[in-house]
Amino acid sequence: MPNRKPKQSASSEFLQANKAAKFILAKTKLRPRIALVLGSGLGGFADEFENAIKIPYAKIPHFPQSTAIGHAGQLVLGKIGGIAVAGMQGRVHLYEGYSAREVAFPIRVFGRMGVRAVILTNAAGGINLKYQQGALVLIKDHINLQGDNPLVGPNDDRFGVRFPDMSQPYDRALIAAAQKVAREQGARLVQGVFVGVAGPNLETAAEYRFLRQLGADVISMSIVPETLAAVHGGLRVLAIVVVTDLCIPDRLEPVRIESVVAAAGRATPALDRLIQGIVASGSLGDPGKSGGR
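The chain above was modelled as a monomer; its predicted structure follows.
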């Protein structure tokens, strides 16, 4: 479990993010403008990066360390089709005892490294009755029911403005680009609304009914803090989740985390091809420039 610490000031968080970014950049000549956050059972994609170097989170100053099953806990820097990228093999969550600020800290570090676009992935439960196990869902919006927010507390204007707009948290141009790549690959990619919860328990049948009435299509315990910090920092966001279990209230069956990780692993080939195609399409921006939106 992470050690609980007194809340830090916004300025100290900025300095810590700077320190972590400098440490990472000193390890490689690559200057990635694209970052990937690879969730439960999905981290294997980063093993395919070209000319990769791997840095355990434990060695990066102030970087939170993963404790969850299916999260390797290391940062991989390399190339996809000649384009420099940074990939997180695993993330941290609120249920591990971290605050939302700590969960979002790697996104802050990416911003200080010059990253301008992030692709977030994770394993999720399917609330939408039309979804099947293994479905790839492109997130178009989210509902935050995690009870925490990385932007709460003092605001450092060097990260972003005090009241960031969230009318389009998931970049519409990137959503369109992802759909285009999926069509070209003959892959099925649907859009949905993500609901983020704190966990670690899975939900009851009554809760799934309630969440469906709210308009949620998929559910999981991540993505939201990272999205909030990314938008706050001016980074473009694309999120794609894998449906690993079906949350059908009238036919709800017990779910083990090992089966979730295994289901995510079976879906990774299709997700990997999709991400490769999106990065290669150039829709995430010119990797040689650091411009934002």
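Residues 10-281 form a domain with the Rossmann fold fold (CATH 3.40.50.1580).
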